[in-house]
Amino acid sequence: MAVEAFGLTKRFGNFTAVDHVDLSIREGEIFGLLGPNGAGKTTLVRMLTTLMRPTEGTAKVGGYDILREPDEVRKAIGLVAEKLILYPRLNAVENLMFFGRLYGMEGEELRRKVDELIEMVRLEGFKDFPIGGYSSGMRQRLNIVRALLHDPRILFLDEPTAMLDPQSIRFVRDLIKDLRKGGRTIILTTHIMEEAEELSDRVGIIDHGRILVVDTPEGLKSKLGVSNLLEVFLELTGRDLRDRAENRIPIRAVGRM
Amino acid sequence: MGFKRIAYVTMVMAHKDLLDFWKAKMLVVAFTLFPIVMMAIFGYMFPSITSANPYAGKFSSPYGRLPIAIVNEDGGRAGEEIADRFAQLASSTGLFEVRDFASLEAAKERMTEGKLKGVLVIPQGFTESLSSGRQAILTIIVDDTNPQAASSIFGQASSLVRIISEGVAASRISGLGAGADPMALLEPIGLERRPFVRGSATTFQFLAPGFMALTVTLGTLSGLAATISREKEQGTLDGIMVSPVPRYTVVVSKVLAQTVRGMIQSFIILAVSMLFFGVRVYGSPLLMVLTMFLAVLSFSGIGIIITAISGEQETAMTSLMLINMPMTFLSNVVFPIEQLPWWLQVVGKSLPLYYSADALRKIIVLNAQIHHIAPDLIVLALYSLLTLSAAIPIFVRSVSR
User: Fold this and answer.
1) Domains of chain B
2) Among A159, B62, B207, B393, which is least packed, fewest CB within 10 Å?
3) CATH assignment of the domain containing A213
């Protein structure tokens, strides 16, 4: 198993963002983690990537315990977070070289890897410009390959196509399909159902911090007798807007998320 | 993870911070101009009389060229003479700019408008008193809206009147004949000030080391708060935290980068002070570097703790103001700490800035050696050790909640 969670829980004050999640993600699969806004997707990913300590429970990622062997977990994973992990004043090469060095890469090896990744997302012509001047699409392409510097076996992508134009969305989705080559496990959070349907081998639907169901997109559709994943999603998570008073997060917790 | 690898990633992160700083051109410009502007303002605010001036020893921290008026209500010859002599001395010392006014009312009117800082009145009957051997009294009316300026004006005017008065007395005594030393009769016991410091210790010589320490401190605090909370908010901190580097190296690298920035800024201050305001360094530059390094280090922990607790940039910056302002005025940088009531002195002396300013001043002005400033350095080192060892776990906790 690439990821195994055991009763993983995160509370902020009285608010429970992730509630006793048990989850198994297989080696080499693309796993879609679906849920409405505020369902707990990002909190779950942050715990699995060692950025946040669970209140209860634990998980194994790449075979290592997130609490006891965080550095081994970190070597095994790559993260494309919701926010860009890039310094706007630095250019593409400087950004990638910096993060590469944090993974212990140096010299010619690092240089080659950086060039290869920049070419992979077709930014050769822009590699000397500060990335603050890039378009959102260019930035996100670079942001994704930033997570690949050390060839991680497991890649977390948190809403990788939010805010992108159709061309960039297409490019990013094709890139994700490419990235699974060689047996890499990909965990993708999204609330765009067509994306999940196109890319995922299996999906897990999460709401109010709980995993409601895990299955293949086809399995879910036939189980509920609907024609697409969006109907599955609305059937399971309800059709009402989410902004109800009991869903509010205490303001002090917001800064930590 | 070996020490070499830890040192390496720390350097990599510090280098990235400095590169990121260097790329923000406008920031670099402001960063360079800040100490220059600050020193220029204070340099002109506290001008020093050059040693070439014959009256150099008589005044400590003069306000230059203050506009004052002379109103002569006397009409006698001695009144005229005194007015001329005062005006002449005022311009040769550069202390006042004297204007004549016909009436006290007109002069007071101008003072209310703020165009005059004081009015020297030669009252009716001045010549008569003087010639009949009684003490003749001059009156000065001073703009009291700024008490500190007012007392300086009074002090400066008194010094000038004293010079004139001594002249008058001397000529009278020598008129009595018998070869008596006029000064011996007038002032049987005199007090002469001999400088402890080579050259003349100007107010600016006192201020420059303090400002070096202050700039480094303020720069460190706001720099740390800005870079840490910016990385948190823009999300790049996650990129570092998700890579296999020890958490504390992030803190150490930030402190390192800030230290480099702080030292650059303080050397700009030193250069400006030396080139334009006649400040001289008598002590060892190496000792200065060591002190400055400890000055930055002693505040880094505090900066990190405040930033970690604040969570985001605006809160962090506002919380820092809470420390910055009192520190500026209580740490013997601008005002001598002896002016403060005892409990404020305690507050001042509990801030590390007091010790870094003190040590720098002793090095620069008194050529102090390491054993002279050892107490200061030990306090700074202890401060650094305590605050940083508290700051690291607080920072790590704040980023992994």
Assistant:
1) 3-46+204-399 (no CATH), 59-186 (3.40.1710.10)
2) B393
3) 3.40.50.300
